[in-house]
Design brief:
4 strands
């Protein structure tokens, strides 16, 4: 049996709520242990902060704690990055199991374009 403990670090990417301010992104965290990097909560402004600590290609999973927008709004920007850069592997948790029930539907609703009256 090994007695070596692996190091785990939690980096606060942002803690502002309910909207980001200059140099104060909404809620987001980077959990790292061994060779694993997990982006926990993706509040507005956290994608840029995340990249100060880890390359997008090294993000293994994304997990969202609950459905308040200050926890998931940056997922749209992340989706755009992963969808348009074929060199980026898609994180394991990027999908319907990356958070609470209703996350996929909430993202789909916000991705719809509003109808404009003419």
């Amino acid at each position: 049996m090994s007695t070596t403990a692996s190091a785990m670090t939690l980096t606060v990417l942002g803690a502002a709520t309910p909207f980001p301010k200059p140099d104060e992104p909404c809620s987001g965290f980077l959990l790292q242990a061994d060779d694993t990097s997990i982006w926990i909560d993706a509040g507005s402004g956290t994608l840029a902060e995340l990249q100060r600590h880890v390359a997008l290609s090294d993000v293994d999973a994304i997990w969202i704690s609950h459905l308040h927008p200050d926890r998931w709004a940056e997922l749209q920007a992340a989706w755009n990055a992963y969808a348009n850069d074929e060199s980026l592997p898609r994180p394991t948790g990027f999908g319907p199991r990356a958070g609470p029930v209703g996350l996929t539907l909430r993202l789909a609703k916000t991705a719809r374009r509003p109808r404009c009256s003419t």
